[in-house]
Amino acid sequence: MSITEVIMQNISLLTILAIRSFHLSQFRFFVKFFTLFELSAEIFFLYSFILPRTLFHQRLVIGESSEILRRIFRTLLIKNTEVVYSHE
């Protein structure tokens, strides 16, 4: 089994771990990870529903991570994006 197959089998766990982290370096890893494996935004969008809705109501947009998060939310068209933006 290749490393790509192992990663693909564990994508939901990796997604949850990356999204639940509030550290910029881990967000950067997360974005690079999806870019590297050319995974579609739809995959990330589907797995994001595993997370509690309250996560998206918290203030996630802080400092440097702001642009990374904006790109993620804009790409995925997450319903609660306006709530996150309203906290800026």
Describe the model.
With 88 residues, this protein is mostly helical. The chain starts with a helix and ends with a helix. The chain is built from seven helices and no strands. The radius of gyration is 13 Å and the shape is globular. The chain has helices at 3-9, 11-20, 24-36, 41-48, 54-57, 65-76, 81-86. The protein has one domain.
Low-confidence stretches at least 5 residues in length (pLDDT < 50)?
49-65, 77-88
- First and last CA, distance: 45 Å
Mean pLDDT over the full residue set: 52
Question: What level of helicity do the residues show?
Answer: 55-70%
Number of helices: 7
Task: Output the helix-strand order.
Answer: HHHHHHH
β-strand amount: under 5%
Domain module count: 1
Please state the CA-atom Rg, rounded to the nearest Å. 13 Å
Please state the structural category: mainly alpha
Key descriptive features of the protein:
88 residues, mainly alpha, 0% strand, globular
Secondary structure elements and pairings:
Layout (H helix, E strand, L loop, with lengths): L2 H7 L1 H10 L3 H13 L4 H8 L5 H4 L7 H12 L4 H6 L2
In brief:
This protein has 88 residues and is mostly helical. Helix content is 68%, strand content 0%.
